[in-house]
């Protein structure tokens, strides 16, 4: 965190002069924008009431400490399409999944860009490399195609034993302190993070952390946490006001970000990639390296892309599992139904199910979907940028507009979901053995949730993610159930921690209690 008292006194006069200069620039821009404001078109998306915004900066300072809450209040009052002025940027918030599908899928050729001039694009991704922050260019398309080939269903299935092993390791770690029926309270956060990390590290680099205290694991966890803060909406002032980039430079924020990426991220991932190429075991890094010539990639492309996979594959999966544990503690009846379904499979086939057996476990897979709908992992999808003007149902979208999906409200849409505030796994039983990946790529009427994004920007690792979550559910509920802590306190489902990119549950403790009626394999 940057504090005023951390700025050296020798710089204070400079800041005072700079502040005065800024006021003059602000005044000039206000005058100019007042004269040049265009006349709104008929049907234009409403902007929040004037009291919520200021000249030049717009709604930037009106969002509060948790933007998703304030934006949701505005959208509940003003409708599913909302235009916010964020400094130099125009943001359009979308809270209706059907509108989101039309804009990101039907108009996908015009809405798949990424904003430049940000920490993510400029610094982390070295001007748009990788798959997360890269703009809609040939380089991004080549990189994404290569990544999709190494994350294809048949490729992920080859890692089945590895993913199963890591699920076992997670459950063992959660119950290791249980003795003679005395189940201990445990905060699962660190263990779940460790398990998610090991799954993605073993598939990407064929390595793992032996414990949650592993130095490399802690280093990468710190990188993910700090990087998430930098990549958050307010991490880089130059994103909103290019003419104030000098302030980021003055406060040494830009320099700190660049140093953080080059000496911290790059040091770690260059070594991981080099080590993986020397191993006999196959892994995603080796697979991507073999595709370099075919897809015109270089070493920096590989570095940023592997970083993308580790960050996305650790944080989001960890948060999804922690929310699931928290939710299911409140629903013992749902846990009972999962256990009955698993027991029936084990009794019939004398083994634990794999992801290929999901057609026999429609209720359990429906619970997984409902957990991700009921408490979304992210507040907003990664921002899309409009590449070309277009009209949609009387609304005009301009080139350069930034589009974000309000995941909180999308998953509470009463047209898409009956009784959206109710935790109801049965709502997804009709999807049968259809994967989340299949739902995300299909008709909007068949989508289960929207956490993985939209259209050309949809997450390429969906199949890997849902396989991991499936394995954790199988290994856990075949032998255990989740109970509240000894003091009777349940996890809080109504509050969360804003992690910048993700919405995390507040820390909680639960007990993982052995099932007396478990069917032994």
Automatic annotation (TrEMBL):
Annotated keywords: Heme, Iron, Membrane, Metal-binding, Monooxygenase, Oxidoreductase, Transmembrane, Transmembrane helix
Keyword presence, Membrane: yes
Transmembrane intervals: 12-30
SUPFAM superfamilies named in the record: Cytochrome P450 (SSF48264)
Top-level lineage group: Eukaryota
The protein's name: Cytochrome P450
MF annotations from Gene Ontology: heme binding; iron ion binding; monooxygenase activity; oxidoreductase activity, acting on paired donors, with incorporation or reduction of molecular oxygen
Family affiliation: Belongs to the cytochrome P450 family.
Residues binding heme: 459
Essential cofactor(s): heme
Pfam families (UniProt xref): p450
Cited InterPro entries: Cyt_P450 (IPR001128), Cyt_P450_CS (IPR017972), Cyt_P450_E_grp-I (IPR002401), Cyt_P450_sf (IPR036396), Cytochrome_P450_fung (IPR050364)
């Amino acid at each position: 965190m940057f504090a005023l008292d951390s700025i050296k006194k020798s710089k204070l006069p400079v800041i005072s002069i700079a502040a005065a200069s800024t006021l003059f620039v602000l005044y000039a821009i206000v005058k100019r924008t007042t004269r040049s404001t265009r006349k709104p078109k008929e049907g234009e998306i409403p902007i929040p009431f004037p009291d919520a915004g200021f000249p030049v900066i717009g709604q930037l300072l009106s969002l509060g400490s948790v933007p998703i809450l304030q934006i949701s209040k505005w959208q509940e009052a003003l409708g599913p399409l909302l235009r916010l002025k964020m400094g130099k940027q125009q943001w359009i918030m979308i809270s209706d999944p059907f509108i989101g599908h039309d804009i990101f899928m039907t108009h996908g050729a015009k809405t798949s860009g990424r904003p430049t001039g940000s920490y993510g694009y400029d610094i982390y991704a070295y001007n748009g490399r990788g798959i997360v922050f890269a703009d809609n260019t040939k380089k991004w398309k080549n990189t994404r195609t290569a990544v999709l080939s190494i994350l294809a269903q048949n490729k992920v299935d080859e890692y089945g034993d590895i993913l199963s092993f890591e699920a076992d390791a997670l459950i063992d770690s959660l119950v290791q302190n249980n003795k003679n029926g005395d189940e201990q309270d445990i905060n699962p956060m660190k263990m779940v993070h460790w398990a998610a990390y090991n799954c993605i590290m073993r598939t990407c680099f064929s390595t793992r952390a032996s414990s949650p205290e592993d130095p490399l694991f802690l280093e990468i966890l710190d990188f993910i946490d700090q990087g998430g803060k930098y990549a958050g909406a307010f991490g880089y002032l130059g994103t909103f006001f290019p003419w104030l980039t000098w302030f980021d430079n003055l406060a040494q924020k830009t320099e700190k970000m660049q140093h953080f990426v080059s000496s911290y991220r790059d040091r770690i991932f260059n070594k991981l990639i080099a080590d993986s190429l020397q191993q006999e075991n196959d892994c995603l890094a080796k697979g991507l390296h073999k595709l370099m010539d075919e897809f015109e990639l270089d070493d920096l492309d590989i570095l940023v892309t592997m970083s993308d996979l580790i960050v996305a594959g650790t944080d989001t999966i960890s948060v999804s599992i922690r929310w699931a544990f928290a939710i299911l503690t409140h629903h013992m009846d749902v846990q009972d139904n999962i256990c009955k379904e698993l027991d029936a499979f084990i009794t019939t086939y004398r083994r634990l199910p794999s992801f290929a057996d999901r057609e026999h476990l429609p209720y359990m897979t429906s619970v997984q979907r409902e957990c991700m709908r009921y408490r979304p992992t992210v507040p907003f999808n990664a921002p899309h940028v409009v590449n070309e003007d277009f009209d949609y149902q009387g609304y005009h979208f301009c080139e350069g507009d930034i589009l974000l999906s309000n995941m909180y409200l999308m998953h509470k849409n009463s047209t898409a979901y009956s009784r959206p505030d109710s935790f109801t796994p049965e709502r997804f039983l009709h999807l049968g053995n259809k994967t989340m990946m299949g739902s995300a790529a299909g008709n909007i009427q068949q989508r289960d949730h929207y956490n993985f994004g939209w259209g050309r920007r949809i997450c390429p690792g969906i199949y890997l993610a849902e396989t991991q979550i499936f394995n954790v559910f199988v290994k856990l509920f075949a032998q255990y159930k989740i109970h509240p802590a000894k003091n009777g306190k349940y996890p809080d489902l109504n509050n969360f921690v804003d992690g910048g990119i993700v919405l995390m549950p507040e820390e909680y403790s639960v007990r993982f209690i052995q099932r007396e009626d478990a069917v032994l394999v």
